[in-house]
Design brief:
By secondary structure, the protein is an all-alpha fold. The protein has 6 helices and no strands. It is globular and about 40 Å long. The two termini are 24 Å apart. Bound molecules: iron/sulfur cluster (SF4) (2 copies).
């Protein structure tokens, strides 16, 4: 079984369409995801950008996650596994993000309480 990749923010990368399209080298899924995310994030995302091996592991990243995600940048700078391992968890940045992604809060809370 593939190991679960949990992003700094609590997203489960294995379930992300960019991860799945990359894993299966599925260009149709890249096109479909680019179209969907372009609409959702109100910006133009090209199918070639839909390449990602997951937030916290080596390899290619989706452009937003690589260059713009402040949570990922912060977590990488602290050299932690994900935000649940941060002394400041859950920080203001993260609490803002959780408003849009409550499942991420559940995921990270569970890790934070068990450590
Ligand atoms: S880091 Fe990659 S796999 Fe994880 S959520 Fe972002 S785009 Fe998806
Ligand atoms: S301060 Fe801590 S919890 Fe907040 S984004 Fe940075 S690493 Fe994550």
């Amino acid at each position: 079984m593939t190991e679960k990749i949990i992003g700094f923010c609590g997203l489960i990368c294995n379930e992300c369409p960019a991860f799945i399209a990359t894993k299966n080298n599925d260009h149709e899924k890249r096109k479909e995801t680019a179209k969907l995310w372009s609409k959702e994030f109100k910006t133009e995302i090209k199918p070639d950008e839909i390449n990602c091996t997951g937030c916290t592991v080596e390899g290619v990243k989706f452009t937003h996650c690589k260059y713009s995600c402040e949570i990922r940048k912060c977590g990488l700078g602290k050299n932690i596994k994900n935000c649940a391992y941060c002394e400041q968890y859950p920080c203001v940045k993260l609490r803002e993000f959780f408003k849009m992604a409550p499942n991420c809060e559940l995921t990270l809370d569970k890790i934070s309480k068990s450590r």
